[in-house]
Amino acid sequence: MGVVTESQFHVLAVDDSLFDRKMIERLLQKSSCQVTTVDSGSKALELLGLRESNESDDPNATSTSPFVCNFAQEVEINLIITDYCMPGMTGYDLLKRVKESAAFRSIPVVIMSSENVPARISRCLEEGAEEFFLKPVKLADLTKLKPHMMKTKLKKESEKPAEEVKPEIEEEESPVIEILTLHQELESEQQEPMLSNNKRKAMEEAISTGRSRPKYNDITTSV
Q: Which ranges of the sequence are coiled-coil (predicted)?
């Protein structure tokens, strides 16, 4: 398995032929792609986390390794390119399994074959394959893959949840302060009539005490 890091698009290449794997890996790297290669369809499913525990091409195969679990959870695959004729699981079988998965059906799948069989090509395209390349694959063929990978990448970015913007909350006055303020206003309203009544009484008293009694000096009484 070969893994090259630090590139824009990530391609999973599946082929049982070592020569063909190295050839497609080199071409994809020239196209600035990150490449992971495996030699069977079952290993591709394993990397994607789609392989059942009881599925295996080898009866002596061990359980899924921690690397495979981490790979399936952390690595984003933008495209799968697979050979059609492989022992155990064909490229067509791999295509079907990927398209049946809700999590991976949006990943573009490209089929490669050294045999030009129109019925085979039609069946793969009808099942959801984006392209069908005849071997040997050329660099010019891989230029057709960029639009498919770009579409997948943009779709995944659009599905990311947007950051929630918290609304600004105005600071509310403490209810204790509001109650005290209201109490003070009520007290002042009650005190105002009392003050006016007291003032009125004081004025009346001042007026009454200031009145002079009638004088009779200028009045004479005759008998």
A: none
The pLDDT value recorded for residue 19 is 96
- Residue 203 has which token pair? 């004025």
CATH number, position 129: 3.40.50.2300
For 99, counting Cβ atoms within 10 Å of its Cβ (0-12 exposed, 13-18 middle, 19+ buried), the class is: middle
More confident residue, 201 or 11: 11
pTM of the full predicted structure? 0.62
Confidence of residue 26 (pLDDT cuts 50, 70, 90): very high
Domain that holds residue 97: 10-52+68-152
- As a 3-state breakdown, the chain gives helix, strand, coil percent values, each rounded to 5, of 45, 10, 40
Backbone CA torsion sign across 49, 54, 55, 61: positive
Total domain count, the chain: 1
Can you point out the beta strands (E) in the chain?
Answer: 9-14, 33-38, 79-83, 109-113, 131-134
